[in-house]
Amino acid sequence: MSPSHRLSRRIRAYGEAVHLAQRGRSITEISNETGMPDATIRGWLVHSRRPWTRYELFRPTSSDQLSYVIGVYMGDGSISRWRNRFSLRLSVKDKEFADKFSSTCAQILGKEPYSVRHVEDRDNYETIVANVSFCKFLARGLLGLDRYVREHPSGFVRGLADSDGCPAVTTTKKRGKPWFFVQVVVATSTSIRLLSYTRTILRECLGLKATFVYKGKPRPSVYKDKLFNSKKRVFDLRISRFGDVKRFSRIVGFDLARKQEKLDAAIAVHERFGSGQDAVEEWTRRWVRGKSEWILKKSVD
Question: What is the CATH number of domain 165-296?
Fold first, then answer.
């Protein structure tokens, strides 16, 4: 019998035990009728214990926060299981992101914020939420979570974008002339199913058009001194039309300050200077290209 079935059986037995006790049955009689040990019945009726306490039952209620956590889980989160214990884990480079996820999960579950620890050997920040029923809820998959996402679509997209998305600013040349272009990468993934589902949510619930952009294959990774090459293909889900980029910023946005600041700055440059040389000059006056993203200069005239 699985842990969930055992829990369901105990909850039914608890209800029956309370009913029998109200009718004047003794603990021994209740034990015989329910098949539960005397000590268990005594704990329920005398010491006011509940059969679900150790499982911390999660009863989902649609909210922007819950949709956000679903998005983060689909992006960077993972669920691990050891025996009958389940844990939701987030391990990321950005401490602000880990703190945000920790506090949002705590708000949903009615807890104090979960601890965020720095993992030195990976230079990551990690937070773990140990709650069996919450993990099982998230593990339902996109189909099982669809109604919660559709009731608060902005939260889901924001969580996914905080995980795998970013503002994409391009300064290059088009037909020999400088060109400034602003996009939003909603997510980068090898999962076509996740990206297709998110594109549908963007279109049907938020009125935003997004397209796939092929990125190639993941870089080879090293694990236990062995080199692994992935055969999976990586795609971006991008919002490219400037009107939709502005709408994304207004109705969805990023919860991570550094991402939202960059998107707002890029939109402001495009609106004031257009997409030509003046825009490129204004953007590069304040921002410098780092190894993987644009970084705000420390001092600007």
Answer: 3.10.28
